[in-house]
C-alpha cells in the first residue's frame, strides 16, 4: 500500500513497462520519504525494541572490556602514568645531551677556520649524543 502511494505521489519512479527497479526505488524511497511521517512502533513493542538495544549495547561494552582486559594481560597495554614518566625522562635526557654539546666542543673549535672540519666535529658530537640517547632508551632505566 505504501509503495503504491509513493508511486502515485511521485516519490518512486517506475520503468516504461510499469516495473520497479529495486535498487533505484530504494534510493528514491530514502531520498523522498519523510521519516517523521513513517508509522511509529506501537507502545507495547517500544519496550521490546528498547530492551533489545540496551542488551546489544551491554554486550558490546562487555566485549570491549574483555578485549581491554585481554590486551592488558597480554602485555599489549602499559600504564599511562609510566608511559608519561618514560617520555618525560627521555625528553629530559635528550635535552641535557644536546645542551652539553657546546661545552664539549668549544675548546676543540677554538682557532678552527675550516668550515668542513667544524661541521664534521659538530656532526660527530651530535651523533654521539644521539647514540647515548639510543642507549638510554634501550637500557634498563626505562
List keywords for this structure.
142 residues, mainly alpha, 3 domains, 73% helix
Can you describe this structure in just a few lines?
The chain is mainly α and 142 residues long. The protein has helices at residues 2-9, 22-32, 43-73, 80-109, 115-138.
Description:
- The protein is mainly alpha-helical.
- Helices cover 73% and strands 0% of the residues.
- The chain folds into three domains: 2-37, no CATH class; 44-77; 80-138.
- Helix 4 packs antiparallel against helix 5.
- The longest helix is centred in the middle third of the chain and has 31 residues, at 43-73.
Major β-sheet profile: none
Derived structural class: mainly alpha
Helix content: over 70%
Q: Rg from C-alpha positions?
A: 35 Å
Q: Span from first to last CA? A: 70 Å
Number of strands: 0
Which series of helices and strands comes N to C? HHHHH
Gross morphology is elongated
Low-pLDDT segments: none
| Mean pLDDT metric | 84
Beta-strand content bin: under 5%
When the domains are counted, the total is: 3
User: How many helical stretches?
Assistant: 5
Amino acid at each position: 500500500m505504501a509503495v503504491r502511494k509513493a508511486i502515485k505521489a511521485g516519490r518512486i519512479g517506475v520503468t516504461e513497462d510499469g516495473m520497479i527497479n529495486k535498487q533505484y526505488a530504494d534510493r528514491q524511497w530514502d531520498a523522498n520519504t519523510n521519516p517523521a511521517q513513517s508509522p511509529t512502533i506501537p507502545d507495547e513493542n517500544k519496550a521490546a525494541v528498547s530492551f533489545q538495544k540496551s542488551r546489544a549495547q551491554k554486550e558490546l561494552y562487555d566485549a570491549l572490556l574483555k578485549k581491554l582486559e585481554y590486551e592488558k594481560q597480554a602485555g599489549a597495554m602499559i600504564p599511562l602514568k609510566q608511559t608519561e614518566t618514560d617520555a618525560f625522562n627521555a625528553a629530559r635526557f635528550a635535552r641535557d645531551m644536546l645542551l652539553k654539546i657546546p661545552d664539549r666542543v668549544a675548546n676543540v673549535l677554538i682557532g678552527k677556520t675550516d668550515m668542513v672540519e667544524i661541521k664534521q666535529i659538530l656532526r660527530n658530537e651530535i651523533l654521539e649524543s644521539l647514540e647515548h640517547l639510543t642507549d638510554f632508551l634501550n637500557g634498563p632505566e626505562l
